[in-house]
Design goal:
The protein is α/β, with parallel strands linked by helices and about 160 residues long. It has two domains: about 1-75, Aldehyde Dehydrogenase, Chain A, domain 2, CATH 3.40.309; about 90-155, no CATH class. Helices cover about 20% and strands about 20% of the residues. The protein contains three helices and six strands. Strand 4 (about 95), helix 3 (about 105-110) and strand 5 (about 115-120) form a beta-alpha-beta unit. It is elongated.
């Protein structure tokens, strides 16, 4: 992970990490004190950060952070995971970890735009398919409008 845009953006991301802790999410990987090599100042660096047991009512589970912070939601059923996913006003990308192979049919049946990966941790569109967000994460003028999160489904 390289530096974020500037010190103000770093401070905002660090604020979200503090909010996640205060709201009760479990901090699994703490990126607040990354090891910076090469003599670079630490004013714009945030290390990868992972929160577990995030809920949609938490700020880190309901706002776009745009930093190296992952929020992991848990659901008891695939339907519950997809309900959480579709209830979000955002949708840049989602990763669903499940043993069920039926995930893609839900998006098609519901007719809702969504970008997700199944059992793959990084949600990244292929370069030949332009992507500028979906839903309230939209940036552009001619395609439908997407939050980065992961869901663990099942055992």
């Amino acid at each position: 992970m390289g530096p974020v845009r500037d010190k103000e953006k770093r401070d905002k991301i660090m604020g979200y990490i503090e909010i996640g802790i205060k709201e009760g999410a479990k901090l699994r990987l703490d990126g607040r004190k990354p090891k910076i090599e090469g003599g670079c100042p630490d004013t714009c660096f945030v290390g990868p950060t992972i929160f577990e047991n995030v809920t949609p009512s938490m700020r880190i589970g309901s706002e776009e952070i745009f930093g190296p912070v992952m929020s992991v939601f848990r659901s008891k059923t695939l339907e519950e995971a997809i309900q959480i996913l579709h209830a979000s006003p955002f949708g840049n990308g989602h990763a669903i970890f499940t043993q069920m192979a039926r995930v893609p049919e839900y998006s098609v049946q519901r007719g809702e735009p969504v970008t997700w990966e199944i059992n793959i941790g990084i949600v990244a569109p292929v370069a030949l398919f332009p992507f500028s967000g979906m839903k309230d994460s939209f940036f552009g003028s001619c395609i439908p409008r997407a939050r980065s999160s992961s869901f663990l489904h099942g055992k």
